[in-house]
Design a protein that fits this description.
alpha/beta; Argininosuccinate synthetase, chain A, domain 2; 3 domains; five-stranded antiparallel beta sheet; 12 helices
Length: 410
């Protein structure tokens, strides 16, 4: 028996799936529907979602469309990049980091409109259902969650299309029949999954890539740029100050033109299965290389190594959907503390899919040329001091070695 729902806030893109969900909520629950469409820089117009919602009977005052690009980059992408975050050594978490913001806004709208439920269009096989719902419950423990893909019997593309036609839901021509693959995009990345990409042993067709030109087609001359950092966050490109969203947009343009940021990955989903995805993160790939470069001269060795040791756990928390969990807050506080003196300028070359660091400079640099030079330096360094250092570190190894020799003689 379904719970008596009076009003639900739906994460709504205006596409086939969420349009079917909208009508299904109306017919199944008989409730009032509020739609929320987030502009995260996905590269598509979001206003058509408003017209589609009106066409499906949603009152204008129940249609919410918000430009979240600045908030997304400032409060989610940049904090994540302070940790040099990658999941399973490669994935820059473009989809994962967007979900908590969308879900947070849904809860805010639910409170504003008096809604007693929220709904999403994630399937029962993927990670997104977990990310959405963990955020919902973290921010409103009593909210009711509707996940249509776990409830309805529209279990195939054909049945979705039949439902849409029955209820006079407009269907884009390219959605008739089997879509070649599924796409999710925002200002940080685009991801493509399914259909032509399901066999991990078959190379992804070139038409799958949307954010980058192929490295083979990139210019034969390198593009040289600089990125300025303050407290671990990028603030300028080539000396020009930019807002967070504008800066990431600029890096995306530079990455796209040089074929940077492509990734073909088989990853381990939180729900237990492996999946193959093709990701494009042009600006993020440049930013990761630049951030690691500025940290290399501003972070103490042990602080840097501690960050690197904690990063996989931090990446897992984001991938699994625990952005609003206390352990992620604790790690974020440590990461933010580490960035106090991560400031300066990094110079890079972009060339045919590659990012090369060519220089780094900071007013807080820990790099001391007098210490590392092979010439006589201004700072005294007595080479003989290394002897005691080595002997102390070798003490346990020598003890271990003596025991081994005794055992070998028996």
């Amino acid at each position: 028996m379904k719970k008596d729902i009076k009003k639900v806030v739906l994460a709504y893109s205006g596409g086939l799936d969420t349009s079917v969900i909208l009508k299904w909520l109306q017919t199944t629950y008989g409730c009032e529907v509020v739609t929320f469409t987030a502009d995260l820089g996905q590269g598509e117009e979001v206003e058509p979602a408003r017209k589609k919602a009106v066409l499906l009977g949603i009152k204008p005052e129940n249609i919410y469309i918000e430009d979240l690009r600045e908030e997304f980059v400032r409060d989610y992408v940049f904090p994540m990049f302070r940790a040099n975050t990658v999941y399973e050594g490669q994935y820059l978490l473009g989809t994962s980091i967007a979900r908590p913001l969308i879900a947070k806004k849904q809860i805010e709208i639910a409170h504003k409109t008096g809604a007693d439920a929220v709904a999403h269009g994630a399937t029962g096989k993927g990670n997104d259902q977990v990310r959405f719902e963990l955020t919902y419950y973290a921010l409103d423990p009593n909210i009711h969650v509707i996940a249509p893909w776990r409830e309805w019997d529209l279990t195939s593309r054909t049945r979705l299309l039949e439902f849409a036609e029955t209820h006079q839901i407009p269907i884009a021509k390219d959605k008739r029949g089997e879509a070649p693959f599924s796409v999710d995009a925002n200002l940080l990345h685009s991801s493509s999954e399914g259909k032509v990409l399901e066999d991990p042993n078959v190379e992804a067709p070139e038409y799958v890539y949307q954010r980058t030109i192929s490295p083979e087609q990139a210019p034969d001359k390198a593009t040289e740029i600089s990125i300025d950092f303050e407290k671990g966050d990028p603030v300028a490109v080539d000396g020009k100050k930019l807002s967070p969203a504008a800066l990431l947009t600029k890096l995306n343009e530079l990455g796209r033109a040089n074929g940077i940021g492509r990734l073909d990955l088989v990853e381990n989903r939180f729900v237990g299965m492996k999946s193959r995805g093709v990701y494009e993160t042009p600006g993020g790939t440049i930013l990761l290389a630049a951030h690691r470069a500025i940290e290399s001269i501003t972070l103490d060795r042990e602080a840097a190594h501690l960050k690197d040791a904690l990063m996989p756990r931090y990446a897992e928390l984001i991938y699994y959907g625990f952005w609003f969990a206390p352990e992620r807050d604790m790690l974020q506080a440590l990461i933010n503390k580490s960035q106090e003196f991560v400031a300066g300028r990094v110079k890079l070359k972009l060339y045919k899919g590659n990012v090369s660091v060519t220089g780094r400079d900071s007013p807080y640099s820990l790099y001391n040329q007098d210490l590392v030079t092979f010439e006589e330096g201004a700072v005294a360094y007595d080479h003989r001091d290394a002897q005691g250092f080595i002997k102390l570190n070798a003490l346990r190894l020598r003890t271990f070695g003596m025991r081994k020799r005794k055992m070998d003689k028996k």
